[in-house]
């Protein structure tokens, strides 16, 4: 039959796995069987009763399939297809009633089940709708604001609706006025005419009251809307930004302090008796002050007292008022000077506090009795006018810290120990007082010119002695004094020829001066002023014995007493026997080792000790840089980079420990285009002087030198110092670095370290850390050798070293 074929095809179409699973999950619906066909229909159908029963069973099966399909499609397709399925059911029901079997199959084919692709598409659409979507903070705020706007809009619509209802209550749409309806409240009706019981004015007032209430309602509504908007914005801020919690600060009971003093606001005497409003002030005596009162209150009382005295008829009271006014003026002028900086005050108004601030500004510290105040400028130094004119001509604008402190002490004929940084201007600090001292002595003539010089200056090296001679001659020539230097490297006959006419000042090295004394070329019979410059360096170089012999050769008659009289400037300035003054000894050093302290204790009498900055420390105008170099080639490449970098202008000083390496490095620098000269102990005196003169004049760019040039050599405007080899001790390192950054100018010192320099790393780290403008590199800070000071005692030898030790002397 055709119906069976259609049914089989329908079952094949519905046999997919997804559809069958959904059919199993779908709830079963009750099957509604069609009513039995009437007899007239049996005759029209053309079949027997059994055939009709079979057809009825088939129709019930079709209906069950249709109902189950409707349930399944409703589950997967949603509400959008439910009305279509209802139409199909109604249509199928009608067709069943009509008894048409072919129409059921056609409808099933027409509205058959959805394909798998369509079902998957529907599922993706539903998943995309139900999938959560991430919103940014700004989008959430916009959504919240939009939601709030809609709510406010609804509220406004509701309020407008209420207002419109309120207005329609008074003014209905039909045009009648509620106020005119008086038949129940304010009047009665007599036929067609309403008779009011209240007056006309009362009715006007009632109308005005309604209008005013209406306007007030509008204003209140506007205020309410603004308040609502502000509240909503505040809620949104709290929601997204968080609320600010104002916690009340709780004060602990232990922190409360009871005030025992009375306050003026607690005075209740005015309430008891009004006479206390006008208090009587006591009349002042003397200077017009009362003890225990503030100066401001005393000043007010004094001014009122002066006014009372000035209005008095007594002449004595008026004179007293004038005296008090003068005293107040003087005191106010003194008070005003207290707040002025020391540089702007007159010298006579400087107080102890000002001098203390002055010493702190220049890092000056001094020890000893009766030490005068330092000088603020050259005009207040007390030097003669001829010396001040020379200072101005030379170009010394402001005195250095050591000059500010040492010159006033030197002018009082006091022994001085000056401990100052290298390059701080020590030469002028002892030369200027020395010239003042010599100017008070008798002039040289035929009788005393062979008794020797009035002053001697000892320096450790020839170069330093010649440098001091150059600086001293700037002042001696104008004052008529003769200054001569006696150093090694020159013929002693030439130096004896220079001494034949007598000299005032001799500048010498200890070895050559002692040689002249032993050869009777020079005597020190009238020497009264002794200067030991770079005393620590002289001791280190082995001149301690020579210095002791020279100081023992000085005359004894002018030696100071070793008591408190040595600190009295009036006694020390007097002439002994009318011709000779007490001998004055001055010692300057960058460091103060025990040997120098022993020397000072033996030959100096009650000295004043002046310290500038920290002893043994480089000046704060030098930037100290340390670099680790493992090989010699790396050193040379780095040195070439520094010289060719154009960061440092000539002159440049390079320090090396060995003479042979000094000459070799100077030649290699000459090959690469630098005009370099060498300076070491193996050079003759003429070669040394030539090298320094070339460097100072600008003919040479670089000076390659040993520690011979590390002490006292003053070359102007040295921009860079390179320690090609690290110094053997920290004192030599300090003096090397001191060749730059002199006279207040800035400079740079670069040191090349090698793994063999471990013994000095600790002291080097400590020296750099004391500088305010230099920084210790991290690798040096963390190096094992820089963590503790090395043990100076030699290490004990092992058994193997003792076994294979070669004995001294000859083999027999």
Automatic annotation (TrEMBL):
Reaction it catalyzes: ATP + H2O = ADP + phosphate + H(+)
Keywords, alphabetical: ATP-binding, Coiled coil, Helicase, Hydrolase, mRNA processing, mRNA splicing, Nucleotide-binding, Nucleus
Compartment(s) where it occurs, according to its Swiss-Prot or TrEMBL record: Nucleus
Enzyme class: hydrolase
All copies of domain DEAD-box RNA helicase Q, residue ranges: 376-404
One of the record's GO cellular component terms: nucleus
Chain ranges of the Helicase ATP-binding domain: 407-610
GO MF annotations in UniProt: ATP binding; hydrolase activity; nucleic acid binding; RNA helicase activity
Biased composition (Polar residues): 177-193
Motif (Q motif): 376-404
Region (Disordered): 171-193
Record's subunit section: Component of the U5 snRNP complex.
Annotated family: Belongs to the DEAD box helicase family. DDX23/PRP28 subfamily.
Protein name, UniProt field: RNA helicase
Species in which this protein is naturally found: Pneumocystis carinii (strain B80) (Rat pneumocystis pneumonia agent)
């Amino acid at each position: 039959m055709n119906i069976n074929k259609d049914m089989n095809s329908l079952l094949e179409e519905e046999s997919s796995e997804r559809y069958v699973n959904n059919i199993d999950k779908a709830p079963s619906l009750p099957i509604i069987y069609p009513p039995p066909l009437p007899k007239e229909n049996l005759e029209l159908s053309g079949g027997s009763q059994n055939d009709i029963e079979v057809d009825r069973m088939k129709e019930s099966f079709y209906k069950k399939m249709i109902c189950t399909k409707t349930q399944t499609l409703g589950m997967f397709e949603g509400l959008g297809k439910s009305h279509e399925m209802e139409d199909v059911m109604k249509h199928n029901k009608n067709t069943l009633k009509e008894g048409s079997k072919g129409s059921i199959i056609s409808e099933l084919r027409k509205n058959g089940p959805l394909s798998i692709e369509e079902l998957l598409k529907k599922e993706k659409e539903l998943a995309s709708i139900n999938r959560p979507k991430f919103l940014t903070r700004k989008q959430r705020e916009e959504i919240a604001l939009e939601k709030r706007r809609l709510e406010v809009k609804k509220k406004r619509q509701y309020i407008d609706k209420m207002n419109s209802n309120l207005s329609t209550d008074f003014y209905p749409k039909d045009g009648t006025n509620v106020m005119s309806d008086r038949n129940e409240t304010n009047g009665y009706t007599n036929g067609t005419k309403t008779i009011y019981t209240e007056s006309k004015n009362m009715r006007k007032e009632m109308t005005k009251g309604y209008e005013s209430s209406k306007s007030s309602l509008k204003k209140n509504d506007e205020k309410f809307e603004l308040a609502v908007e502000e509240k909503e914005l505040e809620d949104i801020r709290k929601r997204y930004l968080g609320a600010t919690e104002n916690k009340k600060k709780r004060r602990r009971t232990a922190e409360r302090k009871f005030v025992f003093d009375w306050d003026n606001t607690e005075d209740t005497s005015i309430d008891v008796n009004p006479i206390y409003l006008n208090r009587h002030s006591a009349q002042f005596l003397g200077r017009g002050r009362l003890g225990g009162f503030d100066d401001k209150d005393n000043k007010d009382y004094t001014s009122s007292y002066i006014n009372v005295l000035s209005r008095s008829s007594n002449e004595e009271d008026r004179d007293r008022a004038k005296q008090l006014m003068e005293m107040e003026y003087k005191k106010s002028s003194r008070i005003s000077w207290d707040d002025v900086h020391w540089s702007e005050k007159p010298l006579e108004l400087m107080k102890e506090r000002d001098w203390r601030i002055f010493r702190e500004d220049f890092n000056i510290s001094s020890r000893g009795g009766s030490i005068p105040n330092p000088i603020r400028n050259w005009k207040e130094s007390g030097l003669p006018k001829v010396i001040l004119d020379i200072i101005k001509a030379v170009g010394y604008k402001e005195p250095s810290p050591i000059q500010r402190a040492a010159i006033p002490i030197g002018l009082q004929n006091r022994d001085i120990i000056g401990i100052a940084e290298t390059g701080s201007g020590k030469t002028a600090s002892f030369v200027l007082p020395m010239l003042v001292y010599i100017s008070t002595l008798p002039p040289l003539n035929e009788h005393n010119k062979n008794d020797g010089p009035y002053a001697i200056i000892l320096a450790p090296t020839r170069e330093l002695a010649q440098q001091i001679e150059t600086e001293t001659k700037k002042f001696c020539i104008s004052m008529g004094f003769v200054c001569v230097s006696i150093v090694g490297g020159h013929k002693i006959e030439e130096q004896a020829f220079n001494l034949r006419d007598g000299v005032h000042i001799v500048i010498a090295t200890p070895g050559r001066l002692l040689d002249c004394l032993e050869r009777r070329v020079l005597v020190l019979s009238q020497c009264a002023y002794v200067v030991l410059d770079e005393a620590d360096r002289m001791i280190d170089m082995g001149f301690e014995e020579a210095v002791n012999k020279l100081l023992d050769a000085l005359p004894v008659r002018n030696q100071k007493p070793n008591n408190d009289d040595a600190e009295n400037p009036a006694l020390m300035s007097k002439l002994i026997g009318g011709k000779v003054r007490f001998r004055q000894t001055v010692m300057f050093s960058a460091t103060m080792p025990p040997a120098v302290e022993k020397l000072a204790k033996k030959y100096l009498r009650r000295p004043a000790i002046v310290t500038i900055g920290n002893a043994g420390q480089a000046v704060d105008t030098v930037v100290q840089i340390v670099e680790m170099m493992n090989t010699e080639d790396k050193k040379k490449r780095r040195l070439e980079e520094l010289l060719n970098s154009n960061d440092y202008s000539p002159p440049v000083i390079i320090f090396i420990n060995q003479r042979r390496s000094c000459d070799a490095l100077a030649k290699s620098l000459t090959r690469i285009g630098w005009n370099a000269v060498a300076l070491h102990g193996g050079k003759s005196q003429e070669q040394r002087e030539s090298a320094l003169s070339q460097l100072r004049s600008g003919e040479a760019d670089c000076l390659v030198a040993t520690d011979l040039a590390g002490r006292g050599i003053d070359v102007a405007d040295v921009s860079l110092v390179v320690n090609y080899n690290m110094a053997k001790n920290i004192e030599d390192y300090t003096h090397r670095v001191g060749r730059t950054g002199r006279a207040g100018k800035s400079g740079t010192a670069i040191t090349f370290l090698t793994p063999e320099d471990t013994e000095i790393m600790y002291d080097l780290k400590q020296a750099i850390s004391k500088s305010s403008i230099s920084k210790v590199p991290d690798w040096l800070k963390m190096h094992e050798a820089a963590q503790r000071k090395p043990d100076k005692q030699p290490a004990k030898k092992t058994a193997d070293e003792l076994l294979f030790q070669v004995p001294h002397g000859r083999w027999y």
